[in-house]
Amino acid sequence: MKEVLTSIGLNALLVLQVAMVVIGAFVAERVIRKLLRRVYLRSNQGYEDRTRYRFLRNATRFIVTLLAGASIIYIVPSFKHLAVTLFAGAGILVAILGLATQRAFSNIISGIFIVGFKPFRVGDVIKVGTIDSGVVEDITLRHTVIVTFENRRVIIPNAVISDDVIVNSSITDEATCEFVEVRVSYESDLDRAMAILQEACAAHPDCMDKRTPEEAKRGQHKVIVRVIRLDESAVVLRAYAWAKEPAVARMMHYDLNRTIKLLFDQEGIIIPYPQRTVHMKATPAQP
After folding, report:
1. What topology is assigned to 176-267 in CATH?
2. Neighbours of 242 (CB within 10 A)
3. Could you give the CA distance from residue 71 to residue 25 in angstroms, rounded to a whole number?
4. Which among 23, 248, 256, 271 is least surrounded, fewest beta carbons within 10 Å?
């Protein structure tokens, strides 16, 4: 009976110790998160501090969980014995784990470099390689989460991002020059088509005036329109319309597509279909 009570007492003590480790890890993670929030989210650094906060918050969660797991293994004798057996007697397993964690450490180092050198920050609009543009939502120890304009989340390992080309639309100035291109037929009034395109872009409420005082004084228009190409069946016009940020620029472009089409219809400006002229060589009649 005494041995049974002793065993129950030891088991209860182990359960209590494990519970204390779990509770301590939970409290420590919450306290550190609150301290990080107070340090980084109440300053005026904007995107940079949000990036550091997200990364350090995720790193803290990982480290605290790792330490809590190691403590539980050390406290519980059966877990400790199993861990010693695995790591002491299974060299192949250790080698496999080493290879498996090599990529993980590469992602961690790349994540530290991203936060340190800041090629992008949480909240920036970026494009990585051939992936669609999106807003950086989170940076963890392993990966970066990008939310596309279709509200899809693209999860990219940090090591992949570090090795790819990044186009950042927000790092210095979020103002975006949107290329609004249309095709008009060779028979249409080219000057009138350019004027309609220019006026439609300038009248849009989201179109910014990016002229310098000297350019405005010289009479340069708010929106520049140029003939950029003479295609086989159309003249290609491009308007350079500025908006305050990439998302606004895209929506402005969508609005202008409709407006320009309606104005061209009213003015008789033709947006041509692709045309082909086929010459058939007559075959001589057989005798």
Report:
1. Alpha-Beta Plaits (3.30.70)
2. 19
3. 10
4. 23
